[in-house]
Amino acid sequence: MNHLIAPSILAADFANMQRDVEMMNNSQADWMHFDVMDGMFVPNISFGFPVLKAVKKYALKPIDVHLMIVDPDRYLKAFAEEGAYSITVHYEACPHLHRTVQAIKELGCKASVAINPHTPAMLLKDIIADLDMVLVMSVNPGFGAQKFIPHSYTKIAEVRELAKNVNPGLLIEVDGGVDNTNAAQLLAAGANVLVAGNSVFSAPNPTAAITALKQVTW
């Protein structure tokens, strides 16, 4: 399949959110990545329902919601109602992961599980057949513009191998330090959804930066 590009709204200009959402609408972006942080699961606070509602008002692309929060089950229904296309929860935050995944699907959203850099891919073995997507964090979650962790290539390949026989259509998303210097290698390792924040929104021409990522071959 052709890979997908999901610019991260966390890196957008919050004072010009409508402008940046409309830029993504008119670009080759496939999704809009929406990071939710609670200051507890990760050492930062981002945004929640009011901002999602505002983004959804203008967004013409699916919104890919990434919950970096403790006890995400409390908010699944609300995020689905506010327009999430997919909902990602963290393996590390969900003691009853199968139940959480089924709840996401019952709400009509795509179900995804994220793993932090220190979390072994093998821990997804018993859930991977039930997932629409796995998000491999290639930085420690919480802040944008961090340095890419090279071991992420190996982890992506491990997730792809786990899925090969039980869920060959699994999407593998990678988030953190993604740009044109590593995109081809990420895709070659098995990723097919690239989240890009700083490399898009700090570029002189964000639309062109998205196009460049979309056109990467490997």
From TrEMBL:
Q: Which cofactor does it need?
A: Co(2+); a divalent metal cation; Mn(2+); Zn(2+)
Pfam families in the cross-refs: Ribul_P_3_epim
The reaction(s) annotated as catalysed by this protein in its Swiss-Prot or TrEMBL entry are: D-ribulose 5-phosphate = D-xylulose 5-phosphate
Q: Which is an annotated GO molecular function term of this record?
A: D-ribulose-phosphate 3-epimerase activity
Q: Which UniProt keywords apply?
A: Carbohydrate metabolism, Cobalt, Isomerase, Manganese, Metal-binding, Zinc
**Which top-level enzyme class is recorded in the Swiss-Prot or TrEMBL entry?**
isomerase
Pathway terms, separated by semicolons: Carbohydrate degradation
Q: Does the keyword Zinc apply?
A: yes
Q: State if Zinc-finger is listed as a keyword.
A: no
| Record-linked NCBIfam families | PRK05581.1-4, rpe
> What's the protein called, per UniProt?
Ribulose-phosphate 3-epimerase
